[in-house]
Amino acid sequence: MSVAKVLGIETEYGIAGGPDADQIVASSIIVNAYAQEGRTRINWDFEGETPDMDARGLPDLTSFAPIVETHLANTVLTNGARLYVDHAHPEYSSPECRTPLEATLYDVAGEEVMRRALLVANEMIEPHQAITLYKNNSDSKGNSYGTHENYLVSRDVEFNHIVRAMVPHFVSRQIIVGAGKVGAETEVGQESDPFFQLSSRAEFFEEVVGLETTLKRPIINTRDEPHADAERFRRLHVIIGDANMSQVATFVKLGSTALLLAALEDSGLAAFPAMPRQPVGAVRSFALDPSLTYAVLCEDDRERTAWDFQNELWHLANDHVERKGADAVAPPDQVQMVLTEWREMLDGVRDDPDTVADRIDWVAKLRIVRGFQERHSLPDGDARLHAIDLQYHDLRPERSLARRVGLRALHPEDEVREAVHNPPEGTRAYFRGQCVARYPGEIVAANWDSVVFDLGEGPLQRVPMLDPLRGTRVLTEELLETSATAQALLEALDR
């Protein structure tokens, strides 16, 4: 039986400018500016962080887990999110959400958090040091940074079954949720000399399965760090995804993946299409094919295009919903919304891409790039076309091309503003966010599965939250409302 698909997105933002153009310094200015403006200086608690745990069991001596940088700017927000510096980028990790639609809202709220941080930060530094932020995945110099998705999965599902089921999806979904990219940056990408790719991240992937996230990037990441009860749950940490400016693309990316994971938990592997014989080659080749006609040989000796994979997977998800429902993913109306959008995007991108330019980032971006190229008679590879690509992802409203192309919004601006400050109500993020808002002076640190209180006397007191579906508004609102202090809250919890 499938577990609730609690989910969220971590986004590392591209950054330029700042004092001496130092990205780490600029990123720290961004995070600290927002923390000061929001009056939250609560640190992240690194207790229990295990990025080196590998879902395959035995350690892979050729793999190296990401280094946890505990000395960089790091804080917890009142909406339950984490805002911090990850290597040389400011990162917003959304709070745990109960549905794909809610997770999309909190991803968009992250964009607004970053805009507000940018405004405050640029008021603190000299005009010639002004910082710019981009919601993208590479810097045009061969460096890529991540947009990672997270999904709660039952520990009962064998990890090799996850690999077998999800590789076909992850190599092919870029045809509808890819962010698009002018040219190529890696050595292997430049060998093909593409004018345009469907995905900004595809060329950076080198392995099918692995632990790393910054080197030898794998299609399936094996980090076994559930941030929850490890006997009951896995957290599937998905690193093969683009930063979407389209809210609909984010929603379908999350919704389709969650539905397929629920189908795997409930019904097993039988209905999933066979994997490509060379998955890394497939993800790169599909990115180079806007015509959607390139086919790869699969382990069942059939050839499939990326569209063929997605079509099979849509039918699998649709059949699963008709037979068993998908309450683990979302209410029925939202599940149907995922299936409808997924289907329309899939058919539209094949039959008439212009009809889905309001939902698919790479289609919208390619129209802008081609239009600019034709108006100014520019050759392929012209630097101005790369600038157009970058400007699509610019967070500044007056500069962002994504804001000018008519992308459909799923969440009105007032809803986004609410999500900037207030946590989701159906997960433990509610308790975390409310504690940060109500007792900021009495919390010394927090992380995904605990909040640590310092009452001034005696030892620090940790409140564990190992079940992502506990700590909800229904379960804790009355407790919080009747606890004027952290001391009162902890005494009530003890009772």
Shape: globular
Please give the order of strands in the largest beta sheet.
4-5-6-1-8-13
Distance between the termini: 34 Å
Note poorly predicted spans: none
Q: Helix content range of the residues, please?
A: 25-40%
What's the total count of β strands?
A: 18
Instruction: Kindly report the CATH topology of the largest domain.
Output: Creatine Kinase, Chain A, domain 2
Number of helices: 15
CA gyration radius, whole angstroms: 22 Å
Structure description:
The chain has two domains: about 5-415, Creatine Kinase, Chain A, domain 2 (2-Layer Sandwich); about 425-495, no CATH class. It contains 15 helices and 18 strands. The protein has helices at about 25-35, 100-125, 160-170, 175, 185-190, 245-265, 280-285, 305-325, 330-350, 360-375, 385-390, 415-420, 430-440, 475-480, 485-495; strands at about 5-10, 15, 45, 75, 80-85, 90-95, 130-135, 145-155, 180, 195, 205-210, 215-220, 235-240, 295, 305, 445, 450-455, 460-465. The chain has a six-stranded antiparallel sheet with strand order 4-5-6-1-8-13. A four-stranded mixed sheet has the order 3-16-17-18, with helices on one face. Strand 4 and strand 5 (about 80-85) form a beta hairpin. The longest helix is centred in the first third of the chain and has 25 residues, at about 100-125. About 50% of the residues are buried. The mean pLDDT is about 95.
